[in-house]
Amino acid sequence: MAILWPILSIYMLLLGVIFVSFYRLMESLAQKNPIWRENGQSFVLSVTRLLERLLDYRNVIQGDENRDKRMSCTVNLLNFYQSEVNRHEMYLRYIYKLHDLHIPADNYAEAGFTLKLHADQLAWSNRTLHSDLRYPTQKEWQRKELLYLKILDYLDKGKQWEAAIPLTKELADFYERRIYDYQKLSGILKRQAQYFEKIISNSQEELRLDPEYYRVGFYGQGFPLFVRVSWG
C-alpha cells in the first residue's frame, strides 16, 4: 500500500490534467459543431462526477481512522458505475472492495447484504461463467448458489435471520424443482428451521438488542461528496 499510494496520487493528478485539456477540446468542438454539444456536455458531466468520487476515495484510502469514510466512498463509486455508466465489471469490483472492508470490522450482516448485490445480478441458468480471481469457471446457477451460501453464513453471524429465510426458501425451491437434489434440499430446510428457532429463542446467545438510529445530514458544497446530502 505504501508503494501504491504515490503511484495512485500521480495517476489522479495526470488524469485531472488530461480531463481539463479534454474539457477545453470538447468546448471548442461544441462551438464549431452544435451536434457535439449535448453528447459532449453529458460526457463531460459524467467524467466530472467520476473524478469527484475517485478523488474522495483517494483522500481516505489510507488509515484505520478512515475506514468508515472508505466505505461511504466505495458505495458512491459502485452506485455510480451501476446507475450512471452501466459498467458491470467495475460495479462488481467495488462490491468486493466494500465486502472486504466490512469483514475486518465484523460487519457480517453488511457484508452479506453487499454480496447480495452481486447475487442479484445472476440467474439460475446453465450459462457458463468464466473464472476470475475469486471464482472458478462454473455454471451461473452454481455461482449464485455459492454466493447465497456465503450470504447465509454472514447473515447468521450478524443475527439477521429474518433476511436469511427468504434466501433459504429460494434455494429450497431451486433444489426441489430445478435440479432435484434432495440431499441439498434437506440441508437447506434444516438450516431454515434453525433460523426460525433462533428468532423465537430466549437464550442469551441469540439475544438481540433493539437498535436505535439517528440521522446526520451534511448540506452544502463545503462537505466532501461522500457525506454530502444530495438535493436531487
Automatic annotation (TrEMBL):
GO term, biological process aspect, one: small GTPase-mediated signal transduction
GO cellular component annotations of the record: cytoplasm; plasma membrane
Spans through the membrane: 6-26
Keyword vocabulary terms for this entry: Guanine-nucleotide releasing factor, Membrane, Transmembrane, Transmembrane helix
Coiled-coil positions: none
InterPro entries hit by this protein: DOCK, DOCK_C_lobe_A, DOCKER_dom, DOCKER_Lobe_A
Ranges where the DOCKER domain occurs: 82-232
Name of the protein described by the UniProt record: Dedicator of cytokinesis protein 3like [Nasonia vitripennis]
